[in-house]
Design goal:
Blueprint: H1 7-20, H2 25-49, H3 53-61, H4 63-94, H5 99-116, H6 119-130, H7 135-142, H8 147-153, H9 162-175, H10 178-190, H11 198-224, H12 227-230, H13 239-250, H14 252-286, H15 300-316, H16 323-351, H17 361-386
Helix pairs in contact: 1-9, 1-11, 1-16, 2-9, 2-10, 2-11, 2-16, 3-4, 3-14, 4-5, 4-14, 4-15, 4-16, 5-15, 6-14, 7-11, 9-16, 9-17, 10-14, 13-14, 14-15, 16-17
Length: 389
C-alpha cells in the first residue's frame, strides 16, 4: 500500500495543493473507503483462489480478455515506471547528481535487490525505504496550516472548472491504480498466504489505505500552506519547485534532505512494485516460472522482464521531460483505464470465489455502486477536464 503513494501520486498531490489549495482534500478522504474496498477484493481473490489476477481472467474469461487486461496493465506500468524514475532523477538533481548517474545507480540497486533476496526480504527492504514517506507528516505540521481554512474548503469543490476536474481525475488515478490490483494479488501468492490469513490481510490493507491517504493529504496541505499562499493558482514546474516549498520551515539543507528521503522512498518502493507487477502478470499469461523464490537460471523470463523494464525505463528518462505535467497526464490515463481493471475485479469476486468468500448480497450491491461511481467520475472528469487543458 505504501507504493500507492508513489512519485506520481505525491507530485499530483503537490500540484493539487499548489493550484487549488485545500479544495482537493475532501476527495482524498472520500477515496479512503474506495481504496480499501478495491484492494480488499484483490486480497480476497488472491488468498482464496491462489491465482494471480491475469491468471484468473484467463481462466474464467479466456485469453483474449486476459491479454486486453494485461495490455492495460503494461501501459499503466510503463507510465508509472517513468514517473518513478523521473522522481528519482529529480531528487538527484537537487544535489547536483546527473540524471544518467541516478539511473545507473538505481538500476544497479534494483537488480541487486531481486538477485540476492527472497520476496520477504525484498518486502522488508521496501517497507524500510517507503517509511521515509512519513516525513511528509512532519513537513505538513511545520507548515502551520490553518485548520479552519482546511475545514471550510472541504465543501468547496468547483466542479464547473475543467482544470479542477482534470486534477480530480488525476487524483483518482493516483489513488486507485490498476497496477496495484495486479501486484497485491500476485504478492499474496508469492508470500504463500492462504484463506486463514484473510482477517490479518484485511487489517493490513485498511491500515495501508489510511496511511497512504494521510500522506497524500499532508502533501496537499504542506504545499497549499506554502506555494498555495505565496503564489496561489500557479502550477508547479519541477521536483525542485516542490522541494523549495518546504525549506523555509525546516531550513534549506534539512528541507532538501527530508524531501529527498520522502520522494526516494515513494519512488523506489513503487519502482520495485511496478517492475515485479509486469513480470508477474506476463508470467501468469505465458505460464513461465515467476517467483522471487526461484533462482534466475530457473526463471529466466521472469527476471529478464524485470531487468528489461527497469533498464528501458532508465533509458527513457531525459532532461527535457516536464516532470509535473508528465505525472499528471499519466495519472489521468490511469483513471481512463481503470474501468477495464475494476470491471474484471468485480466480476471475479462475484463468480470465482467459493460461497463463503463470494462477494454477494447487499455488500456486493454497495461495492458495485461505489466502484461504478468512482470509474464514471474518473473517466468523465478526465475527458471533460482534458478539453480545457
Amino acid at each position: 500500500m505504501l507504493a500507492d503513494t508513489d512519485a506520481g501520486s505525491l507530485i499530483t498531490a503537490a500540484q493539487s495543493g499548489a493550484v487549488w489549495g485545500y479544495k482537493l482534500v475532501a476527495l482524498q478522504i472520500i477515496l479512503i473507503p474506495v481504496l480499501y474496498v478495491t484492494q480488499e477484493l484483490t486480497v480476497r481473490l488472491g488468498l482464496v483462489t491462489g491465482c494471480g489476477h491475469a491468471e484468473l481472467i484467463q481462466k474464467y474469461f479466456g485469453k483474449f480478455w486476459a491479454y486486453v487486461s494485461v495490455t492495460t496493465l503494461v501501459i499503466c506500468c510503463i507510465g508509472a515506471l517513468i514517473t518513478e524514475l523521473t522522481g528519482i532523477a529529480g531528487v538527484g538533481e537537487l544535489f547536483g547528481v546527473p540524471i544518467w548517474l541516478s539511473m545507473v545507480l538505481t538500476t544497479i540497486f534494483l537488480i541487486w535487490l531481486v538477485l540476492t533476496k527472497s520476496y520477504n526480504s525484498v518486502e522488508r527492504i521496501a517497507l524500510a525505504i517507503g517509511a521515509f514517506e512519513l516525513i511528509y507528516l512532519f513537513i505538513a505540521w511545520q507548515a502551520h496550516p490553518s485548520l479552519h481554512e482546511i475545514v471550510s474548503n472541504l465543501t468547496r469543490m468547483p466542479l464547473h472548472d475543467r482544470s479542477y476536474l482534470y486534477l480530480m481525475s488525476a487524483n483518482i488515478g493516483a489513488v486507485i491504480m490498476p497496477w496495484m490490483i495486479f501486484y497485491q494479488q500476485s504478492a499474496i501468492i508469492d508470500k504463500g498466504l492462504n484463506p486463514k490469513h484473510l482477517n490479518a490481510a484485511r487489517l493490513e490493507t485498511a491500515i495501508g489505505a489510511i496511511i497512504t491517504q494521510v500522506i497524500m493529504i499532508t502533501v496537499i496541505i504542506a504545499i497549499a500552506a506554502t506555494i498555495g499562499k505565496s503564489a496561489p493558482g500557479k502550477s508547479l514546474d519541477s521536483v525542485q519547485h516542490i522541494s523549495a516549498a518546504i525549506t523555509p520551515f525546516v531550513g534549506d539543507t534539512v528541507g532538501r534532505i527530508l524531501f529527498a528521503l520522502g520522494m526516494l522512498g515513494a519512488s523506489l518502493v513503487a519502482t520495485i512494485v511496478v517492475s515485479l507487477t509486469a513480470a508477474w502478470s506476463i508470467g501468469e499469461l505465458t505460464g513461465f516460472k515467476r517467483s522471487l523464490q526461484d533462482h534466475p537460471k530457473d526463471a529466466p523470463w521472469f527476471y529478464g522482464i524485470y531487468f528489461a523494464v527497469i533498464i528501458l525505463g532508465g533509458i527513457l528518462i531525459s532532461t527535457d521531460v516536464h516532470l509535473v505535467n508528465l505525472n499528471i497526464t499519466i495519472e489521468v490515463i490511469n483513471s481512463l483505464l481503470l474501468p477495464i481493471v475494476i470491471c474484471f475485479l468485480y466480476l471475479l469476486a462475484r463468480r470465482t470465489l467459493p460461497e463463503a468468500y463470494r462477494l454477494k448480497g447487499w455488500y456486493a450491491a454497495l461495492v458495485g455502486v461505489i466502484l461504478f461511481i468512482t470509474c464514471c467520475f474518473g473517466v468523465l472528469s478526465g475527458i471533460w477536464g482534458s478539453l480545457g487543458n
